Amino acid sequence: MKNLILTFVTLLAGAVSYAQQPFEKYGKEVPIATMSNGKFEEFFDQDTLVQIGTAILNRLSGELYGFVKYDTLHSEATLDPQVISRWLSPDPLADDFTSLSPYNFVENNPIRYTDPDGLAPFDMVREEDPIYSKKGELIGDDGKNNGAIHVVTKNKQAKAVASTGGITDLSNVDHVTLNGGESTVKGVVASVNATASDGLHEEGGHTEAILTTEDELKSGSMGGGVKTVAWKPGKARTGTNNASIVPFDGTADPGAALLDNWHTHTSGTVTTTNAQGQEITVRSATGPSPADNRFAGSMSRRGVTTLQVDTKGTPRVNFINRQGTQTSIKLKHFKKLKN
After folding, report:
1. Mean pLDDT on 306-311
2. What is the rounded CA–CA span in Å between residue 336 and residue 95?
3. What pLDDT is stored for residue 39 in this prediction?
């Protein structure tokens, strides 16, 4: 019995000694991690193969079995998958989603949204008719595929639509619609940029459906897509000319194919002399004029959306009808509308 105990103690001591410096037989002496700073004896687990650093050692034979191969593609630029889920910085687009934490991912709804490029959530259940808030936040979809974009005009209703997380029937929701969708948005932005060249002339245009069949012409369906048409710029503002633009270049509009139309108001000022010989400064007023409202009224009866864009001060896009402005959206938020 004493011999058995002695043999066991000898083997254990050898194992402990060996584990304290496993590369000794190879003429190598490397730092060994220890939980007691060498105060107590420690040894590795009793598996046949143990990993020490990048080396795999056969504990029983004492032979070097091989080395662990690490993927050298992972670096500070391309993180190891084991740590890639850690937040390293706030969302650089946090200002576009002020109602959400800057550390959220896909609006805390990974079932509905994805974010393949890390820029902004993409709605996986969205069709072609997205619904937005007035701040340009994507909040839902109407479940249809007409190529339109809807904007809910009341904040409380926008929050209610966002909370559904799916398809929303807009029949009882206050909203405005861009029938030409993103094509109208791009057309408006192009007109604003053109007006900014001197700030003294108006720009405008319209979107129309490209109708390819007689049935599409009757139903108004956009089977062939959407075309954006820019109008001829208005004359530059002077002391006697108010810089008004002529809709559709003074010709007939596209009829049933017409979707949306828009025009800008100027931002520049002109110094002139009035009838009394006094020097005065002439500038464009913000908001639609009575003539704009009358024109918008004739358009809205046909289901066409009319936009008037203020370029003075903070640029705003006004959705107008015969009564005046239905709702107004800052241009920077309007630019976010996409489908």
Report:
1. 95
2. 13
3. 58
Structure tokens at 7: 């043999």
Q: Are strands 258-265 and 305-310 parallel, antiparallel or unpaired?
A: parallel
- pLDDT of 12 over the 50 cut: no
At 144 the pLDDT is: 84
Adjacent-strand bridge partners of 260: 207, 305
- Opening angle at CA 276, ends 271 and 277, nearest 5: 50
Q: How much is the average pLDDT of 272-292?
A: 75
Q: Which two tokens stand for residue 258?
A: 């017409």
- pTM > 0.90: no
pLDDT at 103: 74
Residue 113 is which amino acid? Y
* Residue 60 C-alpha from the chain's centroid: 59
Smallest CA-to-CA distance from 314 within 335, 292, 334, 332 is with: 332
- Residue 202 contacts residue 234 (beta carbons within 8 Å): yes
Q: List the end-to-end C-alpha distance of the chain, in Å, as a whole number.
A: 85
Which helix (DSSP H) or strand (DSSP E) does residue 204 occupy? strand 204-209
Q: State the amino acid at position 309 in one-letter form.
A: V
